[in-house]
Amino acid sequence: MTRTRTPGISRRSTLALMGAGAMTFTAPWVARAQAKTIKIGMPTILSGRVAQLGTSSRNAVMLEVEKVNAAGGLAGRQIEMVVRDSKGQPQEAARVARELVNTDGCELLLDGEASSGSFAVHEVARDLGVLCIHTCSEASSLTADPKQHIPNAFRCVRQGIHDSIVGGSYAAAISKAKGLKKWATCSPDYAYGRDTTGEFTLYLKRFAPDVEIISESWPKLFQPDYTEVVTKILQAKPQALYSCLWGGDLTSYIDQANIYAMFGQMEVFAVNMADYTALTVVKNLPKGIHSGNRYIKTFPTTPENAAWGDAYKAKYNEYPTNWSWQNATAVMFLAEAAKKANSADGKKLAEVLKGLTIKCPFGADGTVTMRGDDHTLVGYAIGWGTTIPQEPYVPEVKAGDWKTIFELEAEWKKSKGYT
Amino acid sequence: MTELEAGRAQALPSVRSGAALRRYRDLLIAVIAFAVLASLPLFTGSKALLDFIIRCSAYGLFATSLNLLVGYTGLTSFGHGMFFGLGAYSFGLIMQKLGVPIPVAFVATLAITAVIAAIIGAICVRLKEIYFAFVTLAFQMLIHSTILSWASFTGGDQGLRGGIPRPVFLGIDLANHVHLYVTSCALLILGLLAMRQIAQSPFGYTLRMIRDNAARASFLGIDVWRAKLTVFVLAALFAAMGGMVMALFVSGAYPEFAYWTISGEAIFINMLGGVSTFLGPIVGTVLLLLLNDTVTRFTEYHGIVLGVVILFFALGLRKGLLDFVAEWFAHRRDAGEGR
Fold this sequence. Notes:
The complex is a heterodimer.
Chain A lengths: L10 H25 L2 E7 L6 H20 L8 E7 L4 H13 L5 E4 L3 H14 L2 E4 L6 H4 L8 E3 L4 H19 L3 E5 L4 H17 L4 E6 L9 H10 L3 E4 L3 H13 L7 E4 L3 E2 H4 L10 E6 L7 H14 L5 H20 L4 H8 L3 E3 L7 E5 L4 E3 L4 E4 L10 E3 L2 H14 L4
Parallel strand pairs in A: 1-2, 1-3, 3-4, 4-5, 6-7, 6-8, 8-9, 10-11
Antiparallel strand pairs in A: 11-15, 12-13, 13-14, 15-16
Chain B lengths: L2 H41 L3 H27 L7 H17 L4 H23 L4 H21 L1 H4 L22 H24 L1 H11 L1 H6 L4 H27 L9 H14 L6 H19 L3 H16 L3 H18 L1
C-alpha cells in the first residue's frame, strides 16, 4: 500500500502554532491590559448558618463596584472582585486572605468576616501590609484597642458601643416616661451578647438610675428552643426586656414568645429587630417592639437611602441587610479615596482614608467619616424606633445624637484603658 | 550447636543490621525530605505554595499524632483537637503575656500539654471504644467552653488578639515568611521522625498488640493502661506542636482550634490517607487541604464536593488512599511471585 499524501504539519498543529505565536506576541499587551484592572479580595462567610452575612455583603459590594467601574474605575483601573468563602473559620479566613493577596494578586482587601475571623484577617493585613477595610465585624476592640492599630487597616462598620449608648439613652427616656423600673435581659451567650448587654444596661442605668435588672437569661447561640427562657422571664414579671439576639435566633425567639403572648405583658427592646433579615421572617411581628436601626430603607429618611434600598431589592429580589450598607459604604470610601489620591495604591489610599468624610446615603447628615485616630466609621445613621407588622416596619426612628456618642465613647475608652 | 541453632546465630546479626539500616533509612529519608522542602524557596517565589506547606505541617503533625492513637493503638479519639487548641493557646498566651524566647515558650507549651494530657488520659484510657471516644469528646468540649468563658484570659470567642510576638532567636526570625516556612518544615520532619521511631520501637509493637488483643497483651505482662496513657500523652504533644505551627501561621489562636470539628477534620484526614501506613495521614492532609483550597476557589458549595469525596473513599475504595496503593502493590508483588 502506498501513501497518497506525504504527511506534513497537520491543520490542527498549524492552528495551534499560530495560536501559540499570537499568544507570545500579544501576551505583554494582554498583561498590560490586565494590570489596568485592580483586584480586590474579599474573604467572607458564604456557607453555613450565617451565609447571609456573606451573600448580602457580596451583593452590596457588586452593586457599588458596578457603579464605580461604570464611572471609570478606581483611579482609572477597573475593579475585579475576588470573593471567597472562609466558612466562618478564622484559620480559613487567614488562609483565604493570604491566598487572595499572594496568589490572586489582590491589591486591596475588603474583610467580610465576623468576630474571630476579622481578627485573623487583621493579622494577615498586619503581616502583608496590604490595605484592608473590615466591613462586618462589630467588635469595638478591633479598632478601639490601640494594640490592634495598624496604619493599613480600617473598619467601616457600626459598633456595639455606639448602639449601646444610643439604645441606653433612648430606653432610659421611655423608662422614665412609662415608669419602667424592673428590667430583664435575654441575650446570646457569647462575647457579643454579653458585652453589648453589659454596655446597654450600663448606659440605661446612667440615664435612668432607678432601673433594676431583675432577671438575666443567656440562651446559647443558635439555640432552637427558647421555652425555658420565655417562661423564666414571664415568671420574673419585668416591666421591660432587653435583647440583642439577632437573625434566626431573634425570629425563633419572637415566634416562640408570641405563643405566650409575652409582648403584650412588657415593653421589649430588641436592638437587632429593625433589619429586614428579621422583620420579614417573623411570622407575626408584634407591634411596638423597640429596636435600633440595623438597615432600613426608611431611615435615614432621605431619597438617596430609599433609592439605594430599592435598587438593591430590584437587583437581588430581597432587601439589603445591615452588612450590605456597611460593605457598600466601604466601596464608596475606596472610590472617593482613589479620586483624592489619584491612585489605587494601598498606601496612598490609606493616607487619604484617614479622617476622610464622604457623601453617603447611610450617613446621619448625609455624610460619614472614617475617623483618623482609630480608623473607624462614625457619623452613620443610628437611631431607635418601634415596629409595626407591615412595611415600612419601623415608621419613625428617633435619631441618636453623635455628640453624646462621642463623649460617652471617649469615657468608655478611658475606662477600658484604651486611651 | 545444632545446625538449626547455627543458622539462627547467623541470621541474628543480619536482622540487626537490617533494623539498623531501616533506622538509618528513615533518618536518611527525613534528611532528604527536609533538604528538598527547605530548598524550595530557592526555586519558587510562590508564597501560596509555602503557605500550603506550612498548613500541611500543622495539620500533618496533628493528623499523624491521631494515627498513633487510632491506627497503632486502636484508640479512636473524638477529642484529639483539644491538644491542637491547647498547643496554640498555651504558646500564644505565653508569648503574649510573658514575652519569653520562642524555644522556651515551645518547651513550656509541651510541658503544659503533657501535664493536662496525663490528667485527661488517666481518666479516658480506662475506657474502651465508643466510651473512650465520647469521653475524649466531652473533655474537648470542656476545654472549648473554658476558652469561650474565660474571656479575660483567652479573649473568649474572638480569640487571642493583637498578634503573637515573634522575637528573633538563634538568627531565626519567625516574622519572616521563609524563616517560618523552614521552621515549620523542620518541626514537621522532626515530629514525623520521632513518631516513626515510636511506631517502630518495641513500644510501638506493644501498641499494635494492644490494638489487636489487649487481653493477650495484659496476660503477657504488659501494663496496658500505662502503655495507652503513654501514647495518649505522646500523641497530645505532637498535636500541640501542630497547634503551635498553626498559631504562628495565623499569628493568633481561636476557639475553633479546640472545637470538635478540628478533631473531625483529623479523623477525616486519616480516613482519606489511610491508617495502616505511617505516611497515610500526611497523604490525607495534602489531599484534604488541596481539595479544600481548590474547591473553595470555585464554589461555596464545597460541602457537597467533600461529601462526594468521602463517599468515594468510604464506599468505593473502602480504605484510605495510601492503604489502597500499598495493598495494590502487595497484590502485584504476590501475583509476580506466584507466576
